[in-house]
Amino acid sequence: MAVYKITGKEKAEEICQIVKTEQGEGFTLYEIEVTLQTFHWRVNHRYSEFRELHDKLTSQFGIDKNLLPPKKLFGNQSEVFIKCRQMDLQLYLQKLLQQFKVIPYLLAEFLHFPKYEIHGITESLAEKLFYEGDQILANNKEFTMTPLQLYALSERLKLAEPTCWSGSKSRDLGHLLDFISQLKYLRIVGSDEFVFNSNIIPNKLKFDLTAFKSLNKLKIECCNLEHHVTGIEVIRQTVSTLTVHNSIQDINSLLLASFLHWSPLTNSKNWPTWQKVGNADFSHNRMTKINPAIKLLCVVEQLNLSYNKIREIENLESLPRLSTLNLSHNQIHKLEMLHTRLGNVCHLNLSKNNITSLQGMSRLYSLVELDVSNNNILELDEISHVGGLPCLETLILSNNPVTTAVDYRSHVLLAFGSRVSELSLDGQKASQKELDTVAVMQALKAAKEGRILQQTNQNTHGEKATGILASGTSQQCF
Predict the structure, then answer these.
(1) Any bridge partners for residue 145, and if so which?
(2) pTM to 2 decimal places
(3) What is the mean pLDDT of residues 253-273?
């Protein structure tokens, strides 16, 4: 994207052209196309707005009053006149661009530079933060930026130029740099759509986060992070809450950004770890698996991977502090040996997956809350795999086929034995009637087990007696 310095007639002609007109009720709109390198956009203005601009430029910069084509009171709606005025206004703009070595802010604003051009964007941001920045920082508020704004800032910092071209102290780049170096909470919102009347697509722009040296919370929405973000090595040291929505297919594109060579087999001392992230949210993305790079979140306590397309629970065994895990709305089918992968998890959400069995959960001894609603659990016997978990207090099984079984709640509560009164099942603790029913079922179960044990003992004694008798008979015969 070009800079404010514009010189030469040929360049001015390339930058600014009036490409067409549009008739309104008693007025004509002139559509201006502005082109800066590979970017271009269109701006609509009436003649009265040209006149207003010209008056200000004449007053502030001594522009020749006769440079702007004069107003015509009669016949100003004829096709011939409009075509002629279109060419005259185009020439007027091009002469202005030639006349100024540095485009004044009035003209830049008229051509919508603050929306599309790096100097205009950064100066506009600087002015906003000159008035609002201190309050945002003092209240620790979230500040939202777009990839276009971040791109403009990144490109502007590469230029060996004064921090302000417009001459206004409020638009000095220093205000923006001071602000972002102290900012704690940044939200980046991208888009795959064109920006207004331009050919600029935000998610195709690269940007750098090096200047954000104090970020505590980073939230990224609807961006393209694949090879588009640099400076990750800086924020990796400070961010404690990381949220990424609708932006990635795998976590490598963010967690390993700016780090070309990494393997989970290398010495963990050399890993590019995110040393402060305790809360990570990668929900609403397009992930099909949990990549080994998840291990770089070495101190994460809360991890949200919901609303993806994950099929297997893997690569989480190296997260010793992980206590809350959300894997709802995925495509998980099997739960094998989860205690080797989720040994310290207390809160586990596996709702809306394809789970048919709870067998792999029988040794999750730290589990306090389990949500497996909206799955395909069919048999009541599956509850026995979690009934013995000593810390489990909340179990959600709603919208599974098993919930249609006769006396469903009573049979599930029965599986928890003496802890039945501590359990909340599908959002409700056991009523007194259910507790009484379970007590009767426990008594019947104990009686049945007692009879079975007695019968087993009798059979054992009978077998022993038969053996002794047979032994005596053999001795007599001998």
Answers:
(1) 188
(2) 0.88
(3) 77
